[in-house]
Amino acid sequence: MLYYTSQASHPAEFLSCGNLVSDGGFLHQRRCIDACVLILVCRGTLHINQKGKNLDVHENETLLLFPHQVHYGYAPSSGRLSYYWVHFHMTDPQSRILTSKELLRSRNSQNSSLLSTLSSAEESFILPESGRLSSEKRSLLLFVQLLDIAKRENYQSSWRTRYALNLLLLELSSELLSSDRALENKAPGKLPDMIEWIRSHYDQPMTVEELAARYHYHPAYLTSLMKKYTGYSVNTYINHVRLAAAKNLLCQGDFLSIASIAHTCGFPDEKYFMRLFKKQEGMTPSQYRAAFQKKYINAK
Q1: Phi, psi at residue 102, to the nearest 5°?
Q2: In 3-state terms, what secondary structure has residue 11?
Q3: Calpha distance 241→190 (Å, rounded)
Q4: pLDDT number for residue 46
Q5: Based on the number of CB atoms within 10 Å of its own CB, is 100 exposed (0-12), middle (13-18) or buried (19 or more)?
Q6: Which of 143, 156, 191, 265 could pair covalently with 187 via S-S, beta carbons 3.0-4.6 A apart?
Q7: Phi, psi angle pair for 3, to nearest 5°
Q8: What stretches pass through the bilayer (predicted)?
Q9: Phi, psi of 201, rounded to the nearest 5 degrees
Q10: Separation between Cα atoms, residue 135 and residue 126, nearest integer Å
Q11: Closest of 52, 50, 36, 49 to residue 4, by C-alpha
């Protein structure tokens, strides 16, 4: 794995952004540019080659195309493809591309000249060549916000687009690097496996009793354990994951009705979904969707 690293004290410079949508057969052009390109796939799979390596970027996965390196589509897309993209320049003169081993060595070494640069994801851009979003998908929402701001700024570079871009890059650095390693390292027994199962099957019916039986816990003990290590009760965590998935779908347009989104994300009752959504977000699902409608779409 390769990582693009840079100090956050040298903010990235926004160039352009958009949302590519294709109903099939999209093939990325061959090019070599002096800017970074961040891609986040919302639907379908993007097939692209960077520096001789074929990469398949699936839904909720990211790809960073490095500057001054040749990239091109190595195979056409199949079915609907939608992804967000943003072009930007890194302004830190010490920006560099590191391998996983080099990154680990630089973060662990007390004598490393990179130590101050890579001391934490909160103070640095540490962007993997490829990665997968966390279940909360905060980066996705920030990406949509960037697109919305850029639309309202007529796609001109401004302080608003620059701040939005840098917030996205910092969040992405934190999300992709931390993932759920902290929880995996400290949570006992099969709790991490159960949490991963919830994230993979949130669209299916599930109860505390069923989860406890599956992972050999007493329901009361499981509830206590979950609260201790995640800060949520089991049911609250399930709804948290489902609402995150719902926000993802709401950001992608109006191709699904609110009722369909509720059902797709595991809520059997549309009205319950709407009440829960408004309680957490302070607005209805329809209002949330309308807040993110202004984004440029380049259809292929």
Answers
A1: -65, -40
A2: coil
A3: 19
A4: 97
A5: exposed
A6: 191
A7: -130, 135
A8: none
A9: -130, 25
A10: 20
A11: 36
CB 229 within 8 Å of CB 168: no
Say what the pTM is.
0.70
Structure tokens at 262: 């509720």
User: Along the 300 residues of the chain, how does pLDDT read in single tens digits?
Assistant: 888 999 889 999 999 999 999 999 999 999 999 999 999 999 999 999 999 999 999 998 999 999 999 999 999 999 999 999 999 999 999 898 988 778 766 655 544 444 344 444 457 888 989 988 876 678 888 999 999 999 888 878 899 999 999 999 998 887 765 554 444 446 677 888 898 899 889 999 999 999 999 999 999 999 998 888 878 899 999 998 899 889 888 877 777 899 999 999 999 899 999 999 999 888 899 988 887 665 655 655
Confirm if 289 and 250 have CB atoms less than 8 A apart.
yes
Name residue 235's amino acid. N
- Say how far residue 200 (Cα) sits from the centre of its chain: 16
Are the CB atoms for 87 and 59 separated by under 8 Å? no
Stretch (H or E) spanning 50: strand 46-50
217 burial type by CB count under 10 A (0-12 exposed, 13-18 middle, 19+ buried): buried
From residue 11, how far is each of 170, 192, 287 by CA, in Å? 10, 36, 32
Q: What is the model's pLDDT at position 252?
A: 74
Calpha distance 139→117 (Å, rounded): 22
Place of tokens 């520096």: 51
Rg (CA), the chain: 20
Give the Cβ contact number of residue 204 at 10 Å.
9
Which residue has 């209805």 as its token pair?
284
Q: What is the pLDDT of residue 294?
A: 58
Can you tell me which residue has the tokens 């609907």?
A: 80
Distance separating alpha carbons of residues 267 and 202, to the nearest angstrom: 9
23 membership: H or E segment, kind and range = none
Strand intervals (E) in the chain: 2-7, 13-22, 36-43, 46-50, 53-57, 61-65, 71-72, 81-89, 96-99, 124-128, 130-132, 297-299
